[in-house]
Write a structure and sequence with these properties.
- The protein is of the alpha+beta class and 302 residues long.
- It is built from three helices and twelve strands.
- The strands form two sheets. It has a six-stranded antiparallel beta barrel. A six-stranded antiparallel β-sheet has the order 8-7-6-9-10-11, with no helix packed on it.
- β10 and β11 form a beta hairpin.
C-alpha cells in the first residue's frame, strides 16, 4: 500500500512541474506579445482578441447578473419606500374616515333632536357633553352651557329620544346633569295605558326601579313610562322608557335614552305654572283698579 502511494507521488510531481512550466511559458509569451510594439504583432493581437473574447460571454454572465441584482435591489428599495408612503397615507385616510363617521353620527343625532316634537310652550338649549363623573357611585355628566345661557336648577335634559336627567348644579359656563340612574334621582312618572302613578328611583343601574306603585297588577312589561308632571319637577308627557321586569322580580324601567352615547343633550326651559297665592287671583289679574267692591254694609247704609 505504501509502495503504491510512493509510485503515484513519483508520477504526479513531474506532471505538475511540466504543467507549471507550460503555464509560465504561455503567460510569458502572452506578456511579451502584449508588450511588443510592432504592426505585425498588433495585427496578431487584434486577431487573437477577435477569436478569444466573443467566446468569453459566459464569463461575463456573473457580472451581468450581479449588475441586474443591484438594479433590482434599487428598484425594491424604491418600492419599499413607496409602500411605506402608501401605508402612511392609508393611516391618514383611516383617521379621516373615523372623523367623518363621528361627524356623520353627530349630524344624525342633531337631526334627530331637530325632528323631536315638543310642547310649543317648551323651548330648549342644546349643549355638548364635556365629561362624565367616571364614578360608579355617582351618575352625572357635565354640559358646556350654564348660567350665561339661562340654565336653572331642576330643568329636564333629554337626548332627543327620552329624559336623561335633570340639572343639578349650575356654573357660569357649565352645568351638571344628574342622570335618572343616579341613586339620588327621584322623579314622578305615569305608566300608560293604565295611568298608574309611581316614583322612578335610580339605584346606579342601567334600569331604575319603580317604587310606590298603587296597583302593580295593572302594570305589564312593555308599558310606556312618561313623566307625570307632579310637583313641577318635569313637564308632563316626556318619554322615560318602557316597563321591564328585572332579575330580582322588581318592576324596572328600560330607559329610552341612549346612555352609552351621550354627546348632545337638550335642556328644556320649564318656567312652571303661575302660582296663585290668593283666591282673588282666580278672577282678577291682581291689579288694584280691577278689585271688586267689598260686599257688606257701607258707611252710608250703616
Amino acid at each position: 500500500m505504501a509502495k503504491d502511494r510512493n509510485t503515484q507521488a513519483d508520477y504526479v510531481r513531474p506532471i505538475r512541474r511540466i504543467v507549471i512550466g507550460v503555464l509560465l511559458f504561455c503567460l510569458t509569451g502572452l506578456f511579451l506579445i502584449w508588450r511588443i510594439d510592432s504592426p505585425r504583432v498588433e495585427r496578431f493581437r487584434a486577431a487573437l482578441v477577435d477569436r478569444v473574447v466573443p467566446s468569453f460571454d459566459w464569463a461575463f454572465v456573473p457580472v451581468t447578473k450581479i449588475a441586474g441584482m443591484a438594479d433590482n435591489f434599487q428598484s425594491y428599495t424604491k418600492i419599499y419606500e413607496q409602500n411605506q408612503e402608501l401605508r402612511r397615507e392609508l393611516r391618514q385616510m383611516r383617521a379621516w374616515k373615523e372623523a367623518a363617521l363621528q361627524l356623520e353620527q353627530e349630524n344624525a343625532k342633531l337631526l334627530d333632536l331637530n325632528k323631536v316634537r315638543l310642547d310649543p310652550k317648551l323651548t330648549y338649549i342644546t349643549g355638548v357633553v364635556l365629561a362624565d363623573s367616571g364614578s360608579p357611585f355617582r351618575q352625572s355628566v357635565l354640559l358646556n352651557v350654564g348660567a350665561r345661557d339661562g340654565i336653572i336648577d331642576g330643568w329636564a335634559a333629554t337626548d332627543g329620544l327620552g329624559i336623561v336627567g335633570r340639572i343639578s348644579g349650575v356654573g357660569q359656563n357649565s352645568a351638571r346633569v344628574i342622570l335618572l340612574t343616579d341613586s339620588n334621582s327621584r322623579i314622578p312618572v305615569t305608566i300608560q295605558p293604565s295611568g298608574q302613578r309611581a316614583i322612578l328611583a335610580g339605584d346606579n343601574t342601567s334600569a331604575p326601579a319603580i317604587e310606590f306603585l298603587e296597583n302593580p297588577d295593572a302594570v305589564r312589561p312593555g308599558d310606556r313610562v312618561v313623566s307625570s308632571g307632579d310637583g313641577g319637577v318635569f313637564p308632563a308627557g316626556l318619554l322615560v322608557g318602557q316597563v321591564a321586569q328585572g332579575a330580582d322580580r322588581r318592576l324596572r324601567v328600560r330607559l329610552a335614552a341612549d346612555y352609552e352615547r351621550l354627546e348632545f343633550l337638550r335642556v328644556l326651559r320649564n318656567r312652571g305654572k303661575e302660582v296663585i297665592g290668593e283666591p282673588g287671583g282666580l278672577v282678577t289679574d291682581g291689579r288694584a283698579g280691577d278689585q271688586p267692591a267689598a260686599i257688606g254694609p257701607t258707611a252710608e247704609g250703616g
